[in-house]
Amino acid sequence: MPIDRVRRKLVNGFACTAVSAAMLPCCHGRAALAAAGLEFKLRKIADGVFAFRGVDAMMSAANQGAISNLGVVVGTDAVAVIDSGGSLIEANAFIAAIGKITARPVRYLINTHMHPDHIFGNAAFREIGATIVGHRNLPRALEARGAFYLQSFREQIGDALMKGVEIIPPTMLVDDRLQLDLGGRVLELQAWKAAHTDNDLTVFDSATHTLFAGDLVFIGSLPTLDGSLLGWLRQMDALAAIGAVRAVPGHGPVPADWPEALTAERRYLEVLARDIRKAIVDGTPLSEAVKTAGASERGNWHMFDDYNQRNATAAFAEVEWE
Q1: How far apart are CA 227 and CA 197, in angstroms?
Q2: Residue 80 Rama label (left phi>0; alpha psi -120 to 50; beta)
Q3: What contacts 175, CB < 8 A, 6 or more positions away?
Q4: Nearest CA-CA partner of 168 in 141, 199, 198, 191
Q5: Which residues form the Metallo-beta-lactamase domain (predicted)?
Q6: Do 50 and 71 contact (CB within 8 A), yes or no?
Q7: Would the CA dihedral through 309, 310, 312, 317 be positive or negative?
Q8: How far apart are the first and last CA of the chain?
Q9: Which of 27, 58, 223, 241 has its CA 20 to 30 A from that of 36?
Q10: What is the pTM of this model?
Q11: Cβ of 24: how many Cβ atoms within 10 Å?
């Protein structure tokens, strides 16, 4: 074989090996999701805007932690990602999917709040050089909850899925509002007062009027309360006033019409508050009130029995002292 042909063969062989090694985590992510019967597929919902829909379930080994909705916005210079998913397996599959739609670098990973299904994939995006962005309260929340999350979810979803997961706080913080320029496209980030959590952040793409609402919006799956029921309700009108035409909720179908996406959630939260207020007026003890508060909503939501009593318990003291 001529020497130049041998050289080309060797060079090409090394190049393929290098590419394969670099892509291995992403390929592993896709393969692991496929083995679980899941497919990581980004759906185009507007010009330069893509979303992944998570499954309507609690995090488990069976669903690879892929239960939250995730997003991508592509500018002329760079990419922003909204939330990283519930495991490194999912995050690496996410990165591979982004690579199929654009060669532009992922400049920002925006965490909408602290919950594991939205932040357990952060390490994968740190490895590709993304700046992690979050609410001003997010570092404190992760410091307080991080060790508990790592321990409890290891028990819930298993060691294999937790491999490599780290609690990684944002390095760019949003006090009130912040704009991120992706080149020809500016994202508007807004920090909210306590609602779903005390560190909720929304992302609005004004170019396409698309809102990434995080877990300030649930559709189908029961809203979970880890912040302030009354604060959530007080901010509902301001949330609805955002000039979006479509939204990506934290959980549920994507995209959803805006502000109609808020209708069922608002109703549930109002019913929950009303029932707790009545229980307090009637002198019903907490242990009994949480069994009936919000019960009329049971047929409207997935995972109602998993979360409603916890929501009622969290809200009872707040409503009692309002």
Answers
A1: 4
A2: beta
A3: 136, 191
A4: 141
A5: 67-251
A6: yes
A7: positive
A8: 85
A9: 223
A10: 0.89
A11: 11
